[in-house]
Amino acid sequence: MAKKDVPPRWDRKMQQRLARGEAAALGELYDRFASLVHGLAHRVLGDERAADGITREVFIHVWEHPDSYDPKQGPLRTWVATLTHRLAVQRLRATETAALARDGSGTAEELEHKVRRASVAARADYIVQSMPVPLRSALERAYFQRRDYRQTATDLGITEDEARRRLRLGLQLLSTAHDTEAPGAPPGYGGAV
């Protein structure tokens, strides 16, 4: 196996510990990824209680099926995010389909549009959370603080050229949220939602 194909050591060790049934490993995994899982689920579902439910489901699945994670396929973080996305989209479809059948308001096309919108928003959140801190810091200043590249450069103590580069790269990554197979998004995170 080539060096670049070797999964991070923490990911391999965590999977092994979970497979052995170490409750402390689940606690450590929860501490590391609970906010990611809850945030992605909430972004898709738009409901705090539903996001809590998905968070529980994800960690139950991880606990009961640790061998379903293959470290060779990518980071544990990506696998957890993909699992969260899949379960949240399933829940959204089921909830909206039930509401559609019950109320008769809306169409299947509107349902799919809503699922697609929620999926793109969740992918964008994941991309922002996963991008390197220097890119994220530049984007946060530009977007939330309404800073231009000159002000961002001053705030971060970098050159104006570097600020422009970080903003451009960050926006390029973020623009992939609409792609069906977005680089930087979890595998299977695009396409069929």
TrEMBL record:
<dbReference type="Pfam" id="PF04542">
    <property type="entry name" value="Sigma70_r2"/>
</dbReference>
<dbReference type="InterPro" id="IPR039425">
    <property type="entry name" value="RNA_pol_sigma-70-like"/>
</dbReference>
<protein>
    <submittedName>
        <fullName>Sigma-70 family RNA polymerase sigma factor</fullName>
    </submittedName>
</protein>
<keyword id="KW-0804">Transcription</keyword>
<dbReference type="InterPro" id="IPR014284">
    <property type="entry name" value="RNA_pol_sigma-70_dom"/>
</dbReference>
<dbReference type="InterPro" id="IPR013324">
    <property type="entry name" value="RNA_pol_sigma_r3/r4-like"/>
</dbReference>
<dbReference type="InterPro" id="IPR036388">
    <property type="entry name" value="WH-like_DNA-bd_sf"/>
</dbReference>
<keyword id="KW-0805">Transcription regulation</keyword>
<keyword id="KW-0731">Sigma factor</keyword>
<dbReference type="InterPro" id="IPR007627">
    <property type="entry name" value="RNA_pol_sigma70_r2"/>
</dbReference>
<dbReference type="InterPro" id="IPR013325">
    <property type="entry name" value="RNA_pol_sigma_r2"/>
</dbReference>
<feature type="domain" description="RNA polymerase sigma-70 region 2">
    <location>
        <begin position="29"/>
        <end position="94"/>
    </location>
</feature>
<comment type="similarity">
    <text>Belongs to the sigma-70 factor family. ECF subfamily.</text>
</comment>
